[in-house]
Amino acid sequence: MATANPTQQESTAPPRPSAERVREILIVDDHPLMCDALALTLKISFGLKNVRTARSLAAAQEQIRSQGVPDAVILDLNLPDARGAEGLVTLRRQIPNVPITMISADLENAMISAAMAAGAQGYISKSLGREALVDSLRRMWDGERVTPDSYEPEHAGEEDAARAELARRFASLTPQQMKILRLICQGRANKEISYELSIAEATVKTHITAIMSKINARRRTQAVLLANSVRLFEPA
């Protein structure tokens, strides 16, 4: 029986995560000073020549489509068009194999748990010093899941797995369905959603049926509870 060539096996295996392979970063943050300071730190600390920036989730998505997939993303928790885990869930759908680091001043356990369950490679504080920030990013890009020292996971085992599975279901929603779910969570009626999005009420109902099927919810109230359980949308 012929045996596989070890060299061939190695060449076809997916590359292992490595900070050395991260050469192009996308920073998504609506605060210009924070964005510029972070970009400069990354350029100096990692010797990067190309650090891209975007001020909103929509701008980040468009930039990925037009300029290509970056090697890593640093994503602000709260953006003008996405607050909470929504930005992460949305980008994870678009770039499933790219490490995404959440960055925020919000270090609440529940929010960190939700972000990690939704597929974040790590979660870091905006107040980190330069050395700690660089070390955290390097560890994440080497494949480690990194969270703040103060973080205490709320759940373990099956509950963590259930939350991660729920986040994957939300990631299957289309952009329009995500908008409708956000409005449902705000307590809007179908007629209000129709007016807000300039679509027919019948179309809203069709989307809601699809949403319920994808996230395995029977009623609107259950859909809201599920969205809240993964901190999908945070109040402005």
Structure description:
The chain contains 11 helices and 7 strands. It has 236 residues and is α/β, with parallel strands linked by helices. The strands form 2 sheets. The protein has a 5-stranded parallel β-sheet with strand order 2-1-3-6-7, sandwiched between helices. The protein has a two-stranded antiparallel ribbon with strand order 4-5. α5 (109-117) packs across α7 (158-171), α8 (175-185) packs across α10 (201-215) and α9 crosses α10 (201-215). It is globular. The N and C termini lie far apart (64 Å).
Quick rundown:
By secondary structure, this protein is α/β, with parallel strands linked by helices. The chain has helices at 6-12, 32-46, 57-67, 86-94, 109-117, 130-141, 158-171, 175-185, 190-197, 201-215, 220-229; strands at residues 24-28, 50-54, 72-76, 78-79, 82-83, 100-104, 122-125.
Order of helices and strands: HEHEHEEEHEHEHHHHHH
Decide which structural class fits the backbone. Answer: alpha/beta
Terminal-residue CA separation = 64 Å
Main beta-sheet annotation: 5 strands, parallel
The number of E-state strands comes to 7
Q: Looking across the biggest beta sheet, what order are the strands in?
A: 2-1-3-6-7
Strand-residue proportion: 5-15%
Radius of gyration: 19 Å
Shape summary: globular
- Helix fraction bin: 40-55%
Put simply, the count of helices is 11
Mean pLDDT, nearest integer? Answer: 86
Poorly predicted spans: 1-14
